[in-house]
């Protein structure tokens, strides 16, 4: 499977992703859990027959583990004030570089630790034991 890179999240790029994913699945089916970002719920989206969307309730970050990764990154980048537009531009460029460094330094284990919700796993294991 190859990596797909999209410059931003909008309906057009999300449609391209869905079409690509559908091709990768072939005759298999997938349930795709998505938040309610505008690109995900656009009426223009043509859902392939082998992909079933499952919408998360609004304001439910516990169902979207990537939110904890964003929190981790924000902690490393917050509380910086800029005295001019030029300083802001320099700061944005520096932050972009810092975010890239943070991603490059993250290990697989750290991502799992940051994005895991053990209480959900425990509830699933408990429910499965019945």
Describe what this molecule looks like in 3D:
There is one protein chain. With 130 residues, this protein is mostly helical. The longest helix has 21 residues, at 85-105. It has a two-stranded parallel sheet. It folds into 2 domains: 11-57; 63-128, no CATH class. It is built from 6 helices and 2 strands; from the N terminus they run αβαβαααα. The mean pLDDT is 83. The chain is 55% helix and 8% strand.
Label the structural class: mainly alpha
* Count of helix runs: 6
What helical percentage do the residues reach?
Answer: 40-55%
Q: Give me the count of strands.
A: 2
Assembly state (oligomeric): single chain
Tally of structural domains? 2
* Order of adjacent strands in the largest pleated sheet: 1-2
Q: Which consecutive residue ranges, at least 5 long each, have pLDDT under 50? A: none
Euclidean distance between termini CA atoms: 37 Å
Rg for CA atoms: 19 Å
**Mean pLDDT, all residues:** 83
* H-E order: HEHEHHHH
Largest sheet: 2 strands, parallel
């Amino acid at each position: 499977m190859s990596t797909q890179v999209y410059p931003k999240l909008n309906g057009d790029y999300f449609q391209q992703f869905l079409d690509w994913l559908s091709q990768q699945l072939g005759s298999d089916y997938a349930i795709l859990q998505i938040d309610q970002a505008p690109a995900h719920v656009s009426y223009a989206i043509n859902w392939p027959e082998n992909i079933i969307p499952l919408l998360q309730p609004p304001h439910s970050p516990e169902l979207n583990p990537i939110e904890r990764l964003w929190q981790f990154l924000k902690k490393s980048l917050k509380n910086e004030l800029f005295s001019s537009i030029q300083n802001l531009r320099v700061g944005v460029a520096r932050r972009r570089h810092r975010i890239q460094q943070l991603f490059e330094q993250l290990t697989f284990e750290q991502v799992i630790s940051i994005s895991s919700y053990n209480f959900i796993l425990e509830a699933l294991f408990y429910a499965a034991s019945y």
